[in-house]
Amino acid sequence: MPLSTLETPAQKIEQSGRSGLRINLGANDRRIDGFLSVDIVPPADVIADLTKPWPWPDSSVDEILAFDVIEHLPDKRHTLNEMWRVLVPGGIARIQVPDSSEGDGADCDPTHISRWNRSSFEYVEKGTFERDRFRNSAYYGINADFRVVSMGNSRHERRRGGYVIELQVVLEALK
Known about the structure:
The chain is of the alpha/beta class. It has helices spanning 9-16, 76-86, 105-108, 129-134; strands at 22-25, 36-39, 46-47, 61-67, 87-103, 146-157, 163-173.
């Protein structure tokens, strides 16, 4: 095969709709191989305020890790809309967040400012009543379309007798 017809890795990624970009939100100093660390404070690779428009173009991120960060962001709509906006079609968001329905994890950290539970994700899950009803509403402002790939939880005991239930949610961006 002539050299001019061989595809470079960058061309293969471009044709597949994949960027190769994987970001770890709220990472601070928690490095994960293959992921760009993002936080509002150093020593992250990218310093970004996630309460503002995220610094990546539309459909430019393949995978997002958001472990113990979205509960620190004030606007669920903004967070999930931006997550969806930057993900490529079929891109994956892996979220870990304290379940506000059970345990004290949602309330024990004084920097938690939004509360999440299993039902929170129905408003961005394509095909659910809540998502379809409020799609493109000027008030609700929900643009994101996700498929919930999986949802589970884990329990962590606290020193003083309380416990934290962490939701682990995997979302796929539908575009």
